[in-house]
Design brief:
Layout: E1 2-7, H1 15-18, E2 27-28, E3 31-32, H2 33-43, E4 48-53, H3 57-70, E5 72-77, E6 84-90, E7 96-101, H4 108-114, H5 116-119, E8 124-128, E9 131-133, H6 137-147, E10 151-157, E11 163-167, E12 173-178, E13 186-188, E14 192-194, H7 212-219, E15 223-227, E16 232-234, H8 238-249
Parallel strand pairs: 1-4, 1-8, 4-7, 10-15
Antiparallel strand pairs: 2-3, 5-6, 8-14, 9-16, 10-13, 10-14, 11-12
């Protein structure tokens, strides 16, 4: 199943790191946070990615263009005036990655809409390129298929609020709104599963996915929440980046389940 990753924003809240590169390329544990997110999905067998790029999108393309070479053992042949290269061993994941320039100032909903042709009318995963978690993707997908609604988002309990959810006893999201400093409620952690009908709720580049589309889905009873009680952490600032780096260095990063995590 395809995985759509939002990786086009300016990352202004962590400007000291994102000034010269896209926020998803900011490294934790020596690898871009985007790589960590992709490894999470790959662990569950989901290896086809559509990356919604924007700000400094050429750097994302260059990173993936070089990835195979950087993760291979290579012999360079210069003898007798030759300039040839032989790949000896490669250590890359079995990924198929499509990087799409979705515009510099396009909003989140608009970015999703711009990759519609690559989704190819299928149900797909979608998340943001700046947060990690240890959610079980197979359980999330099973939950989505069981309820039959248009969209599922992963909800977590956090003191620092993002989008506020009102969830009823059947896990249906009754309303969706932006955070309030006095709130204490489940929040939208991303890690969504979306049916292709989602594109009917997105009008154009100016559509903020977390507002109009999710609000309308909630009003129509088409948005469900998968409550995740494990680890989730976004990387909005340097303090959070340092915390994620510390967890990796200490060998206590809950989202890292793959065997070669410390290579």
């Amino acid at each position: 199943m395809k995985v759509v990753l939002l990786a086009g924003g300016f990352g202004t809240r962590i400007a000291e790191e994102s000034e010269n590169r896209p926020k998803p390329l900011v490294e934790i544990g020596g690898k871009p946070i985007l790589w960590h997110i992709m490894k999470e999905y790959s662990y569950y067998g989901h290896n086809e990615f559509i990356i919604c790029a924007g700000y400094k999108q050429h750097m994302l393309k260059e990173w993936f263009a070089d990835y195979f070479l950087y993760n291979s053992d290579v012999t360079f042949h210069y003898e007798n005036g030759k300039n040839e290269m032989t790949i000896r061993k490669q250590h890359c994941e079995p990924w198929k990655v499509t990087v799409v320039d979705t515009g510099l100032h396009t909003m989140t909903g608009g970015r999703i809409r711009r990759v519609k042709e690559y989704v190819n009318g299928e149900t797909f995963f979608m998340t943001y390129g700046d947060g990690v978690c240890d959610v079980d993707m197979e359980k999330l997908l099973h939950f989505h298929r069981e309820h039959g609604k248009t969209a599922t988002l992963t909800a977590v309990m956090q003191e620092q609020q993002k989008g506020i959810l009102d969830i009823d006893g059947s896990n249906a999201v009754k309303s969706f709104r932006e955070k309030n400093v006095t709130d204490s409620a489940p929040i939208n952690a991303g890690y969504m599963v979306l049916n292709p009908e989602i594109f009917q709720y997105i009008e154009g580049d100016k559509t903020v996915f977390e507002r109009g589309p999710l609000e309308r889905l909630a009003e129509k009873g088409e948005l469900m929440s998968y409550l995740h009680k494990g680890f989730w952490q976004c990387m909005d600032n340097k303090r959070e980046m340092d915390m994620l780096n510390h967890l990796i260095a200490a060998g206590r990063a809950p989202w890292i389940k793959w065997e070669d995590c410390h290579e």
